[in-house]
Write a structure and sequence with these properties.
Blueprint: E1 4-7, E2 13-15, E3 21-29, H1 34-44, E4 48-49, E5 52-63, E6 66-74, E7 84-89, E8 93-97, E9 128-132, E10 135-144, H2 150-159, E11 163-164, E12 176-186, E13 190-199, E14 203-208, E15 211-216, E16 221-231, E17 234-245, E18 250-251
Parallel strand pairs: 11-18
Antiparallel strand pairs: 1-3, 2-3, 3-6, 4-5, 5-6, 7-10, 8-9, 10-13, 12-13, 14-15, 16-17
């Protein structure tokens, strides 16, 4: 018995509007092999119809070598393996600082000079919370199932909480922190995985009080040690030493498998 495929009389049901869709319905006869049916539907149904693109199809076995198939067409093609999408947010982050960029004014003019220390009390420097540049971005990639191995998932785990050891996505080494990834498998073909990052700029040539030429990578932590001094016959706190600490380990972001 030859294998036949014919469009059904109740085919071409359509939804009109922003999310337009059309369903083409087929009847297949002459085989019990589901793989043959799927190949036949893929080869027979057009890749585009009435200005819409083929997004997916389903088949249903009715028995006796008879099958029904439904092919869905929509305005936006589904993501394919190897595709990617991107999103970003420049909302900024909050940082507690104890040192200003500069002291704009002192009133009266004879007030003690704390060399930029903020909120000095009798025995402490209280500081202030400020908004600092923070660029958060995500990348969603559709990765072939054979590439998402146990070793690859482990690599994502071990790179989480690390900083780029080399240039990455247009940022210099030390500026990007990998916040982790989340993913789910789409059928048997591929995985949809979203990667989350935050970027903070490197800084060079900073001046803190009378201490200059301070360099700091984006995700290193800078803190200031203060010491007692006198100014205008008043005991004051002034920057005595500046420390730059590495608090995140470097990582090789090429292991993410999404390019650098």
């Amino acid at each position: 018995m030859p294998i036949t495929i014919t469009e059904k009389f109740d085919s071409r049901e359509a939804t009109v509007g922003e999310s337009a869709t059309i369903d083409l319905l087929y009847s297949i006869q002459g085989t019990e092999d589901d793989a043959t049916v799927k190949l036949l539907v893929a080869a027979t149904s057009p890749t585009a119809y009435a200005g819409l693109v083929r997004q997916s199809f389903r088949v249903a076995h009715l028995g006796g070598g008879v099958w029904d198939a439904s092919v869905r067409y929509g305005a936006v093609p589904p993501k394919q393996t190897g595709d990617s999408s991107f999103a970003f947010d420049t909302g900024g982050g909050t940082q507690h600082v104890t040192q200003s960029l500069s002291t704009v004014a002192r009133y009266p003019g004879t007030a003690p000079n704390f060399k930029g220390a903020i909120g000095v009390t009798g025995d402490a420097v209280e500081g202030a919370d400020i908004v600092v540049p923070l660029y958060s971005f995500t990348e969603t990639h559709y990765i072939a199932a054979e590439d998402v191995t146990g070793a690859y998932k482990a690599a994502l785990f071990f790179l989480t909480g690390r900083v780029n050891g080399a240039a990455f996505k247009g940022f210099a080494a030390g500026e990007v922190l990998f916040l982790g990834a989340s993913g789910s498998q789409r059928g048997e073909d591929d995985w949809e995985i979203t990667f989350r990052f935050s970027a903070s700029p490197n800084a060079t040539g900073l001046s803190i009080g009378d201490i200059g030429s301070v360099d700091k990578k984006g995700w290193e932590y800078l803190w200031v040690r203060y010491a007692d001094a006198t100014d205008a016959n008043v005991l004051v706190k002034r920057p005595f030493a500046v420390y730059v600490e590495q608090v995140y380990e470097d990582g090789d972001f090429s292991g993410l498998g999404i390019g650098t």
